[in-house]
Amino acid sequence: MNREYHKWYSYRTCRDMELLVFGHAGAKVLVFPTRCARFHEYEDIGLIGALHDKIEQGQLQLYCVDSLDQESFYCFWSRPGDRLHRHLQYEAYLLHEVLPLMWNKNRHPSVIAHGCSFGAFHAVNFAFRYPHCFNKVAAFSGRYDLTEAVEDFRDLFDGHYDEHVYFNTPSHFLPNIRDDGLLHQLRRMDIVLTIGDADPFLGNNRQFSTTLWDKGIWHALHVWQGRAHSASAWRKMVRLYI
Asked: What is the set of domains in the chain, with CATH numbers?
């Protein structure tokens, strides 16, 4: 299997950024790690192995990016507005550095945003903000409202709310989309969401699914048995939904 390590200094994040590429051809998959995890996590927990055949056969090429969560959403010593500013720098890195790399290396027309747990939030948030860049979203065990406190999961903005919070909270901005062009771009995407029936964010996923249907956006919401928030569950999911 083709495996490439890339590292360069990003002037948008003002630091070195690393990523791994797996595969030589096929649909391009932008893979976000789980909360505060690193670019090699997807390989470490066996998800590359679960997709080995599809990667080897040239069906998929994965781009596993690093996370800046510890400097943005989970940087609790920083003010909420500064956390969002850091996230927007990360988004600019993805938009203007990672996506062009993907297109330069591989001209396959299909681009997929994918992630598990907090990576699912990133995949949905990024793809829904820039739907013209993606053909599919596959989000496993995600939460799409970071202002919602559930069980041990806190409001990541500590009660702060502004336009940057709004436009980075899919559960908030999706209901208010009225632009026909943007809705058309969202409706043409293949959207797959998974969640466990014992996951604390099951309600958020169902609410998000209802909003998608209200907007005429076809998608699939797969509810798995149990919490289904683990590498073992995700290894089964990737074989079915990626």
From this structure: 3-241 (3.40.50.1820)
